Amino acid sequence: MTRSTHPPRPSTLTDRVAAIDRTALAAELDEHGSAPVGRLLTPEVCRGIAALYGDDERFRATIDMARYRFGSGRYRYFTHELPDPVRELREAFYPLLLPIARAWADKLGRDAPWPDTLEEWIARCHAAGQDKSAQILLRYGPGDWNALHQDVFGELVFPLQVVVGLDAPGRDFTGGEFLMTEQRPRAQSRGSSTTLEQGHALVFTTRDRPVASRRGWSAGPMRHGVSTVRSGARHTLGLVFHDAK
């Protein structure tokens, strides 16, 4: 009998996030402002989350992007009663990303107001008037897109966030790449695109990243968006670690 030499796959979402190589993640974020971390959700879980889009009781607000000139398509903000996979992912990512957030704040000479637990941090957000859930379920159809932007909803901001693909590119939809641009000092902006596979997650900066210069560290502003979906339907889950006003 031949035994597999591969280690067993972590069984829970918390275990899968905890198994992410923290050193490699930090290095990738330092270099690019974004970092893919592989598959975290099964296709079944992805389809289950995407199917919640039509359940009005799950959401506190729906945004028509065309109305606000954000692009085309719609997204919905979950209530604080998050579906179990969404809640578990958010709680698991916070301690993984916290040391990186603190390191970035140190380089940029900024305050690092984030406590050791997500619960404490969200309580501070609510005390400051940012008491609305910012977890997002987005849906794009043919011709839809998302303008380049930053998800800053108040004075209290966590500098990293996560997006998870819920549909299979090339099968469920075409187009719809995740886009990022970085504004470079005295130079043209630099762009990148990522195809989000089903169940895969991408960690990225909320608004900027530390950039080394001759004078030390400076903030490199970054924005994210989505290219035009050419066909099919594209759903994504957005995890934000601060709440909104």
TrEMBL record:
Gene3D superfamilies, alphabetized: q2cbj1_9rhob like domain (2.60.120.620)
Pfam families: Oxygenase-NA
Protein name: 2OG-Fe(II) oxygenase
Organism of this sequence: Streptomyces sp. JL1001
Taxonomic classification: Bacteria, Bacillati, Actinomycetota, Actinomycetes, Kitasatosporales
